[in-house]
Amino acid sequence: MISEHDADPAHLYRREREAFVALLRSLSDEQLRTAVPATPAWSVHDVAAHVVGITADLNAQEFGRGDPDAWTAAQVSSRRDRSVDELAAEWARESVQFEEGLRAFGYEMGSHFLGDLLQHAQDVRSALGLERLAEADALAVALDHYLDTFHLALVAVGVGSVDVRVADEAWTASMVDWYDLHDAVTRDEDYPESERIQRALASGRVPTTVLGRNEGAVQHVHRTVRAAVTGA
Question: What is the DSSP code (8-state) at residue 65?
Fold first, then answer.
């Protein structure tokens, strides 16, 4: 579960969308054709087409056909001949529903798409040699999503920890924290709850139980015991 700042990601998304549009409108045709190293197949204009296209696609519940590269490529190619003003107008129309959706789906989804927009905006700024983004509040909310993903990646490979700082805030992505959390949950919640369940079963007042799909390990134990006892 990601941490949450006291902020509205949808509001921040709108602010950063409007700032990105203002930047795009200030660029020359040559700058719009500049290749963006972080997305080497795309120009600055193509990146703009993508961030507009993804809002339109998600509003239409169009999620591609299993090939994310083909999905995003179609967003770009279908808008390649549109002007910045045309892209901005479409984005403004689509963002009414899109930003409402970010609020409806909650902070985690909102921080995800805010982070996606900020990444692309920073990629463009870097390609053009401009100063990097300085909106610490938006960056902090976006990092709530990406640091959670990064944290899980560290846990998966068993690597130590990484400190991250934005303005006056700091985070540590660490496998140690993950182990401490699960140790505490197992010790303080799972074991006592298992004892209570066992007492209820031993009382004879519960004739049958149903194991949910999330209890795969318990189901495996019961199948193994049954097979050993019955030979089935």
Answer: S
User: Is CATH 3.40.50 what the domain over 9-143 is classified as, yes or no?
Assistant: no
CA distance 59 to 99: 10
DSSP-assigned beta bridge partners for residue 162? 173
Give the integer Cα–Cα distance in Å for 94 and 131: 29
* Structure tokens belonging to residue 86: 């045309």
Six-digit token string for 36 = 């963006």
pTM (two decimals): 0.69
How far is Cα of residue 89 from the mean position of the Cα atoms in its chain? Answer: 26
Amino acid at 30: E
Domain range summary for the chain, segments of one domain joined by +: 9-143, 176-230
Which residue matches tokens 């490979």? 157
Segment 108-163, tens digit of pLDDT: 889 999 999 999 999 999 999 999 887 888 988 988 888 777 777 777 776 667 77
Residue 208 pLDDT exceeds 60: yes
Say whether pLDDT at 1 is over 90.
Answer: no
Residue 148: C-alpha distances to residues 95, 109, 151, 166 (Å): 26, 13, 5, 15
CA dihedral defined by 190, 192, 193, 199, rounded to 10 degrees? Answer: 140
Beta bridge partners of 169: 166
CA 76, 82, 88, 89 dihedral sign is negative
User: Which residues contact residue 48 at a Cβ distance below 8 angstroms, ignoring those fewer than 6 apart?
Assistant: 20, 24, 84, 87, 124
Q: Which secondary structure element, helix H or strand E, spans residue 195, and what is its range?
A: helix 191-202
